[in-house]
Amino acid sequence: MASIAAGxxxxxxxxxxxxxxxxxxxxxxxxxxxxxxxxxxxGPGQQVSEELIAKQHxxxxxxxxxxxxxxxxxxxxxxxxxxxxxxLGGKSPxxxxxxxxxxxxxxxxxxxxxxxxGQTCVAADYVLVHHSVKDKxxxxxxxxxxxxxxDDPQQSPDFGRIINLRQFNRLTGYLSQGNxxxxxxxxxxxxxxxxxxxxxxxxxxxxxxxxxFGPILPIIGFDTHEEAKAIIAKNPYPLALYVYTNSSSTExxxxxxxxxxxxxxxxxxxxxxxxxxxxxxVGFSGMGGYHGKYGFDRFSHLKSIxxxxxxxxTPLWYAPYKKWYVQVLRKxxx
Length: 334
What we know:
Layout: H1 2-5, E1 10-12, H2 19-32, E2 38-40, H3 45-54, E3 61-64, H4 67-78, E4 84-87, E5 93-96, H5 102-114, E6 126-130, H6 134-149, H7 165-172, E7 179-182, E8 186-187, E9 192-193, E10 196-199, E11 216-222, H8 225-232, E12 240-244, H9 248-257, E13 262-265, E14 286-287, H10 292-298, H11 323-332
Parallel strand pairs: 1-2, 3-4, 5-6, 5-12, 6-11, 10-11, 12-13
Antiparallel strand pairs: 4-14, 7-10, 8-9
Helix pairs in contact: 3-4, 5-6
């Protein structure tokens, strides 16, 4: 939308990981727009991106995906000196302070984490909770999971499925890397993984080294703000960060002391839908804010033009420069 609003022609490349969505999108684009205005191409991402980005001079490349692929996109764009906007991933933390309203916090975490079966780029990838309220939070998380998705979430019309078998196998590999305190059921034939809460995970395990992007939520306790901040620093530059607290000083400590793309206080993921806020990553989670006016500006080139008139001309511009000219200029420049 921002590209169209800014008056651009555009080429869309949907992910090959979601072929049905790509087919619907292709049909909609081709029925609505002329191909020389908005075009859509499908196929293997690596092959298509090489033909489009490395071999063509585009005015801008916008990419959503993993940090690893984003790095390749940026390298390809560099051959044509094409600017890029990258919305990448990362391990977005959710911090629950000792003074948080636990029941409210648990409800918001369940909503935001398990939306779209956890396959949301800004979903909290893990929870850091103060040890004094950890057990209460886990109990409240279980309660709200049951209220939202029932005793058998596989039968819930509100709980999704994993996008493909490759991602299903990757995700189920995480289930053995901690103590499952809720969920854990899975069905490969249905690409179903139950909303899962997992405790006692090691920081060195893959589940805490890689973006999960699925319905599995590790819970990690902490005692001090500094300890929580040190844990986050092991996976720097998250795309999002969420803090649940009733203390303004705790809010400032984390919001001002950690580099992240965007986030919420006492809520999760909804900043993504606020068109008055730029959506952006930082460092490994991306670059270039967009949404609303920020998106319009991102897809525009600011062309600077200055118009002059002969009536406003002055001899002060031109040599030979008389001594009093220089004195006047020096006074004007003070």
